[in-house]
Amino acid sequence: METIPASSIVDVLRKSENSIILPHVQADGDALCSSLALAMALKRLNNNAILYLEEEIPRVYSFLPGRDLIKVYSNEVVSPGTVIAVDTGDLERLGKRISMFRDARITVNIDHHPTNTYFAGINYVLPGSSAVGEIIYGLIGMMGVKLDKDISTCLYVAIATDTGGFRYANTTSRTHEIVADLVNAGVNISEISSKIFDSISLGKLKLMGAAINSLELLDGGRIAFITITEKTIRVAGASEDECEGIVNLGKNLQGVEIAVLFREKNGEVKVSLRSNSDADVSIIAGKYGGGGHKNAAGCVVKGELEYVKRRIEADLKA
Ligand SMILES: [Mn+2]
Predict the structure, then answer these.
(1) pTM above 0.85, yes or no
(2) In three state form, how does the secondary structure of the chain look?
(3) Which residues surround ligand 1, an ion (CB under 5 A)?
(4) Domains (range + CATH), the chain
(5) What mean pLDDT comes out for the span 216-233?
(6) Is pLDDT at 207 greater than 80 in this prediction?
(7) Taking phi first (over 0 means left), then psi (-120 to 50 degrees means alpha), and beta for anything else, what does residue 144 get?
């Protein structure tokens, strides 16, 4: 389990042609925007790069540059030279697109999850980075590609979302140094912030209302459970990707140390865990084949909703 030196991965990226970039399933701001920035940088080097997403681009990120570099995967057979997994802790997080990964001549894994399984031929994993956006920023510099407004905007969104708007413990002085560079390259902070943090659809607002109504407090208010079913999403008129961030409604409640969002779908429950304390929630996620960071992790558990909740409750109390 070793990370290759920066100079070697830069060499691999420089030489890659017809690369396919794969952010994790249900791509979040970091996965999507780091991938976009990388694709744009590779294009500058005359390397064709294209992103394949598992699902449609999340509504909130539809304003981003580089839409022409994105395809939504639909089981087509593609034989890529190089496949680059981005922000992906393990192979399962590639979903159906795992076949593209398996067919590739060269496989690359660029990530910052401490739970990363080093699943590729070439692994570049830096857990000290707040977002993969920071890692891509470094690689772009080493590749000799100049930052422009589009690339900087994508990197900014990647970093701003994974740090919760520079509020989480993963935010470092290095994060701010990088962002200073991005702003100098033309990022419009107020415009982006309003689009990704403040602007909200009616569906999402109703989803938040339903999520708040589902709140259960356990262990004297130290644990918060929020539940969203397929019906909740349908009734609210929200899209699935609008579940992103809902877990924070529980996390931000005073007295809460661990917040959990349960999302029921097709006989499975997607569990998102957040910790405000020293408790490492990636341990619980790992128990069910998931992973993540100490303060933010997730997993998918098969089984009926109530059963899954009681299991997670028992894990948390233990
Ligand atoms: Mn990330």
Answers:
(1) yes
(2) CCCCCHHHHHHHHHHCCCEEEEECCCCCHHHHHHHHHHHHHHHHCCCCEEEEECCCCCHHHCCCCCHHHEEECCCCCCCCCEEEEECCCCHHHHHHHHHHHHHCCEEEEEECCCCCCCCCCEEEECCCCCCHHHHHHHHHHHHCCCCCHHHHHHHHHHHHHHCCCCCCCCCCHHHHHHHHHHHHCCCCHHHHHHHHHHCCCHHHHHHHHHHHHCCEEEHHHCEEEEEECHHHHHHHCCCHHHHCCCHHHHHCCCCCCEEEEEEEECCEEEEEEEECCCCCHHHHHHHCCCEECCCEEEEEEECCHHHHHHHHHHHHHC
(3) 30, 87, 162
(4) 6-197 (3.90.1640.10), 202-317 (3.10.310.30)
(5) 97
(6) yes
(7) left
| Å from CA of 228 to ligand 1 middle | 23
Distance 104 CA to ligand 1 centre (A): 23
Q: Is the pLDDT of residue 170 over 90?
A: yes
Q: How many angstroms separate the CA atoms of 91 and 68, rounded?
A: 26
Tokens linked to 162? 């994974």
Average pLDDT of span 77-105: 93
CA 33 to centroid of ligand 1, rounded, Å: 10
> CA nearest 34: which of 183, 139, 118, 117?
139
What pLDDT shows up at residue 77? 79
Q: Judge whether residue 79 has pLDDT over 90.
A: no
**pLDDT value at residue 17:** 87
Confidence of residue 132 (pLDDT cuts 50, 70, 90): very high
- How far, in Å, from the CA of 219 to the mean position of ligand 1? 30
Tell me how far the alpha carbon of residue 218 lies from the centroid of ligand 1, in angstroms. 29
Q: Ligand 1 centre from 88 Cα, in Å?
A: 8
Report the separation in Å between the CA atom of 132 and the middle of ligand 1, taken as the mean of its atom positions: 5
